[in-house]
Description:
There is one protein chain. By secondary structure, the protein is mostly helical. Residues 289-293 have low confidence and may be disordered. Helix 1 (6-50) packs antiparallel against helix 13 (257-289) and helix 8 packs antiparallel against helix 9. The chain has 2 domains: 6-50; 72-289, Orthogonal Bundle (MetI-like fold). It has 13 helices and no strands. The longest helix is centred in the first third of the chain and has 45 residues, at 6-50. Helices cover 76% and strands 0% of the residues. The radius of gyration is 26 Å and the shape is globular.
Amino acid sequence: MPQVSFEQKTAWERLQVSLIRSKVGRAFVYLCLLGWSLTTIAPLVWVVNNSFKTSKEVISDSFSLATNPTLENYQEAFSLINIGQSYMNSFIMSGGTVFFTLLFGGMAAYALSRFHFRLRGFIQNMLVLSLLIPSFGTVVPVYEILIKLGLVNTYWALIIPHTAGFLPFTVLVISGYMATIPKELEEAALIDGCSRIGILTKILVPIAKPSFATAGIFVFLWSYNDLFSSLVFVNYEGIKPIVVLLSFISSQYGTNYGLMATAVTVTVIPVLIVYLFIQKYIEKGVTAGAVKG
């Protein structure tokens, strides 16, 4: 029987220790992720479960499963509170914000990432500094401008301020990604007679699609969840987005907890569905854009 040397035994023991440590470390990471997911998913599951209960059932026992689920709250939400119209308003405003933000942000990012001019560094620094300005500090001047333009209580009352407010973030994300694209592709296209607009739309935009998706989903979520601006700029009943309607449920229907849970569910679930389909682009766009700026 062959004898095992001291060096081989020591190496084997170190290998065993490293395997144990890696398993323990991996189990610890999985445990932390599990705890974090439970704190995130459990409240959502609790709200969705209560949306299928009556108000009395929610008050008496809100943590039990809905034994007799009912769609009464959803019927009341779409008929009495008119959640459908508020949904449409939210998607029009948020969708318009995403469209104009990506349109202007993509063109600005192309100029900053592919051209070298005198004020290029100054503009980039100003874009970063503009992210530090709170939206609350610009409400009064923006509201006065909207009044003079006659845009208060219209869709543009949120689309224009949101587009202006989210442009710096969009430009920084997309320009950081475009800076990683080889310039040889652009030079070859120019030799073949392609215009600057053609290079942007046919070459850079398809390649930088992850950064556009990343900026688009963040802009959509921020615009969709912006309650403060919606309360100030939109007061007309037919234009109110879903977040404004949700804030009024607690006062107008404060005792109907089942209806409140339904409103929260109807507000959050569509955003989660959209995020699940686009999440693969978010990490790719953010990490690639952070490599080179």
